[in-house]
Amino acid sequence: MSTSPSNSNAGTGKSPAPTAFSSVMAELDFYLFGEGTHWELYNKLGAHLRTVDGVEGVNFLVWAPNATRVSVVGNFNGWNAEANVMFRHNPSGLWEAFVPGIGTGTLYKYRVESAAGIQEKVDPVGFQTEVPPRTASIVADLDSYAWNDQEWLARREKNDTSWLHSPVSIYEVHLGSWIRSPDDPDKFLSYRDLAPKLIEYVKKIGYTHIELLPLAEHPLAASWGYQVIGYFAATGRFGTPEDLMYLVDQCHQNGIGVLLDWVPAHFPKDAHGLARFDGTALYEHADPRQGEHRDWGTYIFNFGRTEVRNFLVSNALFWLDKYHIDGLRVDAVASMLYLDYSRKEGEWIPNKYGGRENLEAIDFLRVMNEQTHTRHKGILTIAEESTSWGGVTRPGYTGGLGFSMKWNMGWMHDTLQYFRRNPIHRKYHHNQLTFSLLYAFSENFVLPISHDEVVHGKGSIISDMPGDLWQKFANARLLYGYMWTHPGKKLLFMGCDFGQWNEWDFNKSLDWHLLQFGDTHGGLQKCLADLNALYKSEKALYEYDFDQRGFEWVDCNNWGESVLAYVRRAKDPGDWLLVTINATPVARRCRFGLPEGGDIKEIFCSDAPCYGGSGLGNGTISGEAIPWQGRPFSAEILLAPLAVSIFKPSR
Predict the structure, then answer these.
(1) Residues facing 445 on adjacent strands
(2) Cα separation, 310 vs 331, whole angstroms
(3) Is the CA virtual torsion 503, 504, 508, 514 positive or negative?
(4) Is residue 98 within 8 Å of 47, Cβ to Cβ?
(5) Is 331 considered catalytic here?
(6) Domain with CATH 2.60.40.10 in the chain
(7) Residues 6 or more apart whose Cβ sits within 8 Å of residue 573
(8) CA–CA separation, 627 and 26 (whole Å)
(9) C-alpha dihedral, 629 to 633 to 637 to 643, nearest 10°
(10) CA quadruple 239, 244, 249, 251: dihedral positive or negative?
(11) Running DSSP on this structure, what letter comes out for residue 624?
């Protein structure tokens, strides 16, 4: 049995006598850790409340194989390196100590001594940290919160693949800048204070999920959470771990799924973090050609190292387990897949076959997806993958990566480029709207208009639209109408749904005051809410999102007038919708072929007066037995300027 010291001399300044006690690590734990399959590593490593021989205290366990000595230092021992020296477990490289008489709220770090010197490190598996710029870990009990979302979790597990044929409309949120304290614009609202406000808004607009930008602890607010120090610690900027659990719990009780941005590609070089943790390149590669992202000034995880892969997979499972998160959006997947990502010739090392594929990262992603979907049925994993890598959303056993869905970056890029053009030039770029349908069903796609599209000088969505004020908002309504009727799930960043003029600023609240202007900002928001309601009520808009049977062109060739028409179908062949798009500010009358005869009713038009539109519309139209566009029936339809219209058979 492994043993470690009791540290009975804590706080005395003397080295403790190694009084034996049983380790939290059983023989099987050591075996799984060595094998790299200890998926619940967070239940052992880190700081855990524990009772030893009737004495309550905290057990500390950390991996530092190349350290010569490790101590736990904190406010409980005056940050004295001699008070609580840890016991080394060989050959695992794990260090352990039990400190009696302390509990939750205790501040601590690991003092790591090695051939490279002495460092004080935050706990890699710590559950809470001080609010930056302070850096100590905090002992926390993640099992004390009383959850009330059992019905949600049971339904999610029972219907584990229902998302394939269900509406998924995601509201991407940065909690620090969604809304600030009304009394102090520089003050964050807590997770608990945000919960009722965010839930009310999400229900009002009709999103099915929220996606939170990274909440793992990060030292630099300007990184938006993408440079993580505490992978197992929810940021203290908005409160305690229990406060975040409350937010997730309340979302579930109100029928809202919660997705979390997750960053396994890289980590920052801050001295108190993972970088050179035990004096060596432990979590990262030693060779900068493998181990550094020069663009971002960060280190790349060594995905080929057993313990590192174990650390990351268990971290993914941790958020699903302890925080009941419904899915992970995995950041920067492309940077993980390619060894030459953002590198010139000679700045990268080929794989063992001479190729540029990162074989270890590919294996890690497959294992992560397999374990998350197996252990938490019904959850989603979503890849931000910006290349044409094949099989991102196909199972690992078929050679895929195993993600549930993938961001459709090609669709986003082409669509926004098209809509930023003056309508008079759009006819020369008609293919930017039609090209996506050549590959729309090659993966399970999410259509993203994310935070990345409204920063770094790109402007906001509404400010990027061409034309006068009326045309800008008409173009935005048209853009969202096209997006919500295009195959694929939906994601929209906060502020885009009501026409925020300014670029997103992580350091201030959204400009909610704009909603007082009902014909513009309020109208755009209502249009988005109605699109979400229609999306959830019409099976033709979601049942076949990932199947070509759900889409057919009616007219994709009218480039001269910048007009499109297509049919969306549900599983029931009689359940279909006709969508028409007019991307110019000129009203037109066009004839379109119909799948069948009878009347069709216009159930949505983005040009409606309640949205700030001109009010041109069609009502109910009779289909005529006039063959058109390869169909036996057709109808002449009025196309409102810069508008999308949706028609449904009247039965």
Answers:
(1) 406
(2) 18
(3) positive
(4) no
(5) yes
(6) 1-121
(7) none
(8) 75
(9) -60
(10) positive
(11) B
**Which of 354, 612, 387, 569 lies closest to 478, judged by CA?**
612
Amino acid identity, position 632: P
The question of whether 505 is a catalytic residue gets the answer no
Residue 93 — left, alpha, or beta (φ > 0 → left; ψ -120 to 50 → alpha)?
left
Cα 381 to the center of its chain, rounded Å: 8
Residue tagged active-site, from 384, 414, 497, 607 = 384
In the numeric block, the tokens 């993938």 are attached to 406
The pTM score is 0.95
Helix (H) or strand (E) holding 364: helix 359-375
Could you report the average pLDDT of every consecutive run of 10 residues in the chain (651 residues)?
A: 39 43 90 96 98 95 98 97 95 96 98 97 98 97 97 94 94 97 88 98 98 97 95 97 98 98 97 97 94 90 97 98 98 95 92 95 97 97 95 95 97 97 97 97 97 93 97 98 98 97 95 94 98 98 96 97 98 96 97 95 98 95 94 96 97 77
DSSP helix/strand/coil, 416: helix
Residues 558 and 543: their CA atoms lie apart, in Å, by 28
- Where along the chain do the CATH 3.20.20.80 domains lie? 166-541
610 secondary structure, DSSP code: G
In whole angstroms, what is the distance from residue 475 CA to residue 250 CA? 35
What whole-number distance in Å separates Cα of residue 90 and Cα of residue 524? 63
- Which residues 6+ apart lie within 8 Å of 151 measured at CB? none
Q: Round to whole Å and give the CA distance between 312 and 516.
A: 46
Q: 213: which strand partners?
A: none
Is the CATH number of domain 1-121 2.60.40.10?
Answer: yes
Cβ neighbours of 206 (radius 10 Å):
18
DSSP state of 75: T
Residue of 243, 331, 453, 530 marked active site: 331
CATH architecture of 166-541: Alpha-Beta Barrel (3.20)
- CA–CA separation, 563 and 577 (whole Å): 17
Is-contact 125 216, C-beta < 8 A?
A: no
Instruction: Provide the 3-class DSSP secondary structure of residue 641.
Output: coil
| 313 in Cβ contact with 367 (< 8 Å) | yes
**CA angle at 230 for the pair 225 and 233, rounded to the nearest 5°:** 95
The values of phi and psi at residue 326, to 5°, are -90, -5
Give the separation between CA 567 and CA 515, rounded to whole angstroms. 34
CATH of the domain spanning 548-649, picked from 1.10.3720.10, 2.60.40.1180, 3.40.50.1110, 3.40.50.150: 2.60.40.1180
pLDDT at residue 3 in the model? 41
